[in-house]
Amino acid sequence: MNKTDVLIIGAGPTGLFCAHQLGIIGLSCEIVDNLDKAGGQCIELYPDKPIYDIPAIPECTGEELTNNLLKQIKPFNVKTHFNQRVEELKKVRNRWHIKTSGKQEFDVASIVIAGGVGSFEPRKFPLKECEKFEGNSLFYSIKDKSIFKDKTVSIFGGGDSALDWAIELSNTSKVNLIHRRDGFSGAESSVQKVKELNDQGKLNLYTNCQIASVSGDKNIDLVKIKHDDGDVKELKTDYVLGFFGLIMQLGPILDWGLNIDKKTITVNTENFETNLNGIFAIGDICSYPGKLKLILSGFHEGALAARGCFKYAKPDEKLRFEFTTTSKAAQERLGVKK
Ligand SMILES: Cc1cc2nc3c(=O)[nH]c(=O)nc-3n(C[C@H](O)[C@H](O)[C@H](O)COP(=O)(O)OP(=O)(O)OC[C@H]3O[C@@H](n4cnc5c(N)ncnc54)[C@H](O)[C@@H]3O)c2cc1C
């Protein structure tokens, strides 16, 4: 059981800055995120795009913002738990116990939900039989590309992920790229490259085709694809990869008894606490009159929620308002005190 003052759900910009604000006032926290890295929408949806409305930063990309937020919380050694979604919530006396899909358990005084638009999850194949192979020979993301070396890999999708992986794996594997349309949504340069590789016989491209079935004993050994004209083709394959983009899901948080309004959590604007004592919601996931779904609003919300957490973590202490420019305690926590 991980025991800490606060569990932050979501390592998007809002969750990361809240971790900073908790650190400044002397509270410990850990962060859980369903993605495999920090940054939320900034890193998943627009890492290379410039943002122009972060106060005092005229321009930075989603990735640069994330890296700077991570740098800013470095002094606090915040523990992060990726690739897992929060599932169960239980009140145990005056603390909260949380379990994640990664079998981690937390015992905390309060929780800050900074879940944005929900956890990003891959859009999956519509065939029920695909579930049986998920995680052993069918994947929606790649963690270790070395397993595909010298194998046959059938990649489905027409966006950047499908194209990029088809190009990369064609160096070491036999690749089939299957897309349900003729046109692709990925970068034009990648589309051209895939067509060249197909012409050179270095990968097999099948357009206007969809998955019809997968079969095999423990692992997949055959995938059937169906052309729009009804023609069915059998492809011997060791692995199937599906890259159909991400969907956002709030998941079990919806069943925690929180006041939910149109997939957002209602909060009071004094400290961003929800209807459950000790559970706060900040960033895109919270709603209140006048809410702006902007990063700067999430920063403000995180600062107030952190202070709201204080009385649950240290009920016998009073939180004093201090500036970082002059607070010796804050500077000590930041490791900058001369
Ligand atoms: C294309 C685009 C451009 C944008 N440009 C701007 C801009 O210029 N300026 C601006 O201010 N804003 C911009 N935004 C909006 C901005 O990105 C969001 O307001 C911001 O990301 C919200 O931050 P957040 O931390 O609340 O949520 P998110 O960034 O959505 O992060 C939430 C995190 O929580 C995780 N999570 C959710 N549920 C769970 C769960 N149950 N268990 C575990 N983890 C979970 C998710 O995986 C995710 O990593 C833009 C958005 C998009 C899509």
Account of the 3D structure:
The chain is built from 7 helices and 22 strands. With 338 residues, it is an alpha/beta fold. Strands 1, 2, 5, 6, 7, 8 and 21 form a 7-stranded mixed beta sheet that branches. Strands 10-17-11-12-13 form a 5-stranded parallel beta sheet, with helices on one face. The protein has a 3-stranded antiparallel beta sheet with strand order 14-15-16, with no helix packed on it. Strand 1, helix 1 and strand 2 (29-32) form a beta-alpha-beta unit. Helix 1 (13-24) packs parallel to helix 3 (62-73) and helix 1 (13-24) packs across helix 6. The radius of gyration is 23 Å and the shape is elongated. The chain starts with a strand and ends with a helix. The model has no long low-confidence stretch (mean pLDDT 95). Bound molecules: flavin-adenine dinucleotide. The site of flavin-adenine dinucleotide has 36 residues, from helix 1, helix 2, strand 9 and helix 6.
